């Protein structure tokens, strides 16, 4: 039983989850100062970085993990704390996320880095956690304007979280970040195993700002 939890917890760890399960959010609408194009010098943080500002702070969150669940129902972690801040030593170019709590009865920790590449005109997201033996890396498609919903795809090599049939295979994944003006932000993580449809595997909803 312990072996099953530690193996499947890895998939849950491939997280960032959001939207839907506990009710709809009011999406964040960027203000006028957020809608200009990225700076011409390609180096200075601009509108696309500023669109991430509502994520900054300390949040209580609820995590719904479908890999550890059964019968289509997720396990739910209600003791998650998320802290997000701009890293000042990078000139405010990257947002750092630290998540702590429990997952499947075990302690859980994750650090993530979210940024925007002016030259590629895309959002980029990478996470490292306490149970998954690989970095989870996402690179978005070029964007033409700011949005309250960010869809950032990537791939990973399955270390066994989806079962023996997928061990060592490349799995498509996608994180969807929804920024809500009522502060109820969410992160959804989807997997698309070979030959299957995309499915939601993890959802995190920021339910209350605590600082």
CATH topology: Lipocalin
Instruction: Count up the helices.
Output: 2
Global mean pLDDT? 84
CATH architecture: Beta Barrel
SS class: mainly beta
CATH top level is: Mainly Beta
The multimeric state of the shown protein is single chain
Number of separate domains: 1
Helix-strand topology string: HHEEEEEEEEEE
**CATH homologous superfamily grouping:** Calycin beta-barrel core domain
Helix content: under 10%
Q: In which order are the strands of the major sheet placed?
A: 6-5-4-3-2-1-10-9-8-7
Q: Can you count the beta strands?
A: 10
Cα distance spanning the termini: 38 Å
Radius of gyration from the CA trace?
17 Å
Low-confidence blocks of residues: 1-38
Which features characterize this protein?
single chain, 211 residues, mainly beta, Lipocalin, ten-stranded antiparallel sheet, 2 helices, 10 strands, globular
Protein described:
The chain is mostly beta strands and 211 residues long. It has one domain: Lipocalin (Beta Barrel). 8% of the residues lie in helices and 46% in strands. It has two helices and ten strands, in the order ααββββββββββ. It has a ten-stranded antiparallel β-sheet with strand order 6-5-4-3-2-1-10-9-8-7. A hairpin with a 4-residue loop joins strand 4 and strand 5 (122-129). It is globular and about 50 Å long. Residues 1-38 have low confidence and may be disordered. Residues 1-24 form the signal peptide. This is DUF1579 domain-containing protein. It comes from Actinomadura miaoliensis.
């Amino acid at each position: 039983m312990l072996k099953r939890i530690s193996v499947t917890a890895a998939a849950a760890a491939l997280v960032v989850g959001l939207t839907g399960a506990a009710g709809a959010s009011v999406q964040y609408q960027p203000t006028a100062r957020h809608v200009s194009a990225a700076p011409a010098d390609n180096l200075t943080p601009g509108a696309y970085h500023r669109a991430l500002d509502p994520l900054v702070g300390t949040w209580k969150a609820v995590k719904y993990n479908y890999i550890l669940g059964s019968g289509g129902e997720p396990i739910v972690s209600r003791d998650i704390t998320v802290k997000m801040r701009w890293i000042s030593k990078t000139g405010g170019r990257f947002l750092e996320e630290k998540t702590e709590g429990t997952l499947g009865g075990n302690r859980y920790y994750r650090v993530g880095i979210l940024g925007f590449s002016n030259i590629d005109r895309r959002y980029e997201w990478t996470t490292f956690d306490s149970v998954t033996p690989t970095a989870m890396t996402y690179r978005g498609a070029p964007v033409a304007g700011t949005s309250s919903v960010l869809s950032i795809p990537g791939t990973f090599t399955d270390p066994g979280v989806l079962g023996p049939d997928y061990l060592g295979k490349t799995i498509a994944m996608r994180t969807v970040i929804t920024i809500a003006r009522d502060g109820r932000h969410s992160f959804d993580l989807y997997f698309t195993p070979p030959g299957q449809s995309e499915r939601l595997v993890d959802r995190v909803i920021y339910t209350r700002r605590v600082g």
